Amino acid sequence: MKQEMLINVSQPEECRIAIVEDGVLEELYIERSSQDNYVGNIYKGRVVNLEPSIQAAFVDFGVGRNGFLHISDVESQYFRQGGFDPSRPIDSSGNQAPLDDDADDDIPDESGNGFSRRRERRVRPGARPRVKPPIQDILRRGDEVLVQVIKEGIGSKGPTLSTYISIPGRYLVLMPALGRVGVSRKIEDDDARRKLRDVMLELNPPKGLGFIVRTAGIDRTKKELSRDLAYLLRLWKVIVRRLKKQVGPVDIYEESDMIIRTIRDIFTGDVDAIYIDEPSAYERAKEFLQIVMPRYVNRLKLYEGKEPLFHKYGLDDEIGRIQKRAVPLKQGGGIVIDQTEALVAIDVNSGNFRADNNAEETAYQLNIAAAKEIARQLRLRDLGGVIVNDFIDMRKERHRRGVERALRDAVKRDRARTKILRTSPFGLIEMTRQRIRPSLKRSVFKECPCCTGTGVVKTAESMAIEAVRMLMLACHQEGLARVTLTVSDEVAVYLNNKKRRELSKLEDDTGIVVQIFGREGLSPEHLTIECHDLNGRELKFQQA
User: Fold this and answer.
1) Mean pLDDT of the chain
2) Quick one: pLDDT at residue 333?
3) Given this chain, do its domains 3-34+259-315 and 460-539 carry the same CATH topology?
4) In terms of DSSP bridges, do strands 326-328 and 300-302 run parallel, antiparallel, or are they unpaired?
5) Which of 164, 161, 185 is nearest to 174 (CA)?
6) Per-residue pLDDT tens for 334-376?
7) What is the per-residue pLDDT for 187?
8) Are 230 and 204 in contact (CB under 8 A)?
9) Which of 24, 320, 328, 461 could form a disulfide with 334 if both were Cys (CB 3.0 to 4.6 A apart)?
10) Which is it for strands 210-213 and 300-302: parallel, antiparallel or unpaired?
11) What DSSP letter does each residue of 107-144 carry, written as one string?
């Protein structure tokens, strides 16, 4: 399988990164310079408000919007006697119950930034589970907290914060609050886990700081892990120094740009080549690779072709189709994706797909193909939250289990956390996918000013009926002599033709002149009414 990473930064306003496998677009990351990107950044913030009813604090961290900090994301140093001291990270003497070896994960979010902080802690047999005190007993207004952004603000919601700090390197993740060495749970081979843990212990990391070996650390030499460890330690010392000197709210640490983040978090030995179409970006990537992964520098190439990079690989058309509601499948049939505020609904349609003139086999094979495409579309569109998949009904239990397995296998390559439930009695498969930032659709498009996001507008007939109703209401005003109605061209044509008799009768009964103006380019639902007296003075009219 030929795998390539294509990086398009020919336009300074936008960076696009695509992962292509045998000519098929498998992953896509888009970032605009005009859009705020705080995920992974570390700030010294100040608590501005507490909400005991939802056990959360709102923190000013210096970006103009307050962040949301839930009690589950407050690290135990903050409610231990003596308070928080960043220069005194959690030691390994037992003050904080350690996480189990498998509770550590290096699963970054969809864009390669940040790490999920909420973890379930195992309690030793016979030990009492540790209960966190209420947030109002931990924090006060004005308290300073060291926080990291783990999810961008979506809509009216501010960014989500956590005090569980994690700083990713190439092969390791520094987690100050962890206090020990761990291995990513994505590394399932027990021998590999044991070997990596032994190598890390030989490197003798400082007591009190925690490190997780990422999946990229498999088969790395002791020297490579040591280099990454030294880099993260230097970085942490700089962060602590800034933290002590500066008063919050203030920026303490910023994540690398999208190109460096993506190469750091996604690039593996399976990637045959990295193409970049802009010289300065190419030099930055080359410098990073020479420091972190010198053996792979020769795979980085500057694209100098006259044809745009993404167009050469046929990706522009593919990216354009990503936003369409219906997605056809190669074998026939397709899936329909509808995104709402609370969830994503995906419907599988059979279309003209047929298999052996057998309804059950047809449904099974189509559902298998749809499961793979659903996983791919979730990655490409960066959809998160609750996702409900309505597959074609199947009677056989083994077929249902087969579709569930296919969906689970297809999402394994997804770097966002996913959880898939079993098929419901109604044939639905519910799942969740980690949401770190708004979906690609919400980032690229804005709400339609005509339909305000509903996807539909009133017909010309509906608007004409409403306009006549408003005219009848306006004509009851005292001193009214003339009413001017401004609507779209289509509505004006309908009023002047099919509503002419009603309008003439209204003029005769009231003695008021009704004028209708249709203007090109107005919204289909545009409707304004102006009322004037005999002297031409405008009268106030309160529209419904």
Assistant:
1) 83
2) 87
3) no
4) unpaired
5) 164
6) 999 998 877 899 999 987 777 777 888 888 999 999 999 999 9
7) 84
8) no
9) 328
10) unpaired
11) -B-TTS--B----PPP--TTPPPP-PPPHHHH--TT-E
Is it the case that residue 99 has pLDDT exceeding 60?
no
Taking only the tens place, the pLDDT of each residue in 513-543 is 999 999 988 889 999 999 998 888 888 876 6
pTM comes to 0.76
> Which regions of 269-398 does DSSP assign to beta strands (E)?
273-276, 300-302, 326-328, 334-339, 343-349, 385-390
- Looking at residue 480, its pLDDT comes to 87
Digit-coded pLDDT (tens) for 273-311:
999 999 999 999 999 888 888 888 999 999 988 889 998
Structure tokens, 460: 């010309």
Host H or E run for residue 232: helix 222-245
Q: What is the pLDDT of residues 150-187, one digit of tens each?
A: 888 877 788 999 999 999 988 899 988 887 888 888 88
**Please, which residues bridge with residue 56 across strands?**
51, 70
* Average confidence (pLDDT) over 458-463: 92
* Closest among 172, 160, 157, 156 to 38, alpha carbons compared: 160
Tell me which long-range contacts 300-303 makes (C-beta under 8 A, separation of at least 24).
Answer: 300/273, 300/274, 300/276, 301/273, 301/274, 301/275, 301/276, 302/275, 302/276, 302/277, 303/275, 303/276, 303/277
Q: How far apart are CA 476 and CA 474, in angstroms?
A: 5
Query: In angstroms, rounded to a whole number, what is the distance separating the alpha carbons of residues 307 and 7?
Result: 14
Q: Are 353 and 362 in contact (CB under 8 A)?
A: yes
How is residue 228 written in tokens?
């990454």
One-letter identity of residue 433: R
Q: Are 377 and 335 in contact (CB under 8 A)?
A: yes
Fold of 42-254: OB fold (Dihydrolipoamide Acetyltransferase, E2P) (2.40.50)
Query: Is domain 3-34+259-315 classified as CATH 3.30.428.10?
Result: no
For the chain, give every domain's residue range.
3-34+259-315, 42-254, 325-444, 460-539
Phi, psi of 485, deg, nearest 5: -115, 125
For domain 460-539, the CATH architecture is 3-Layer(aba) Sandwich (3.40)
Pairing outcome for strands 343-349 and 418-420: unpaired
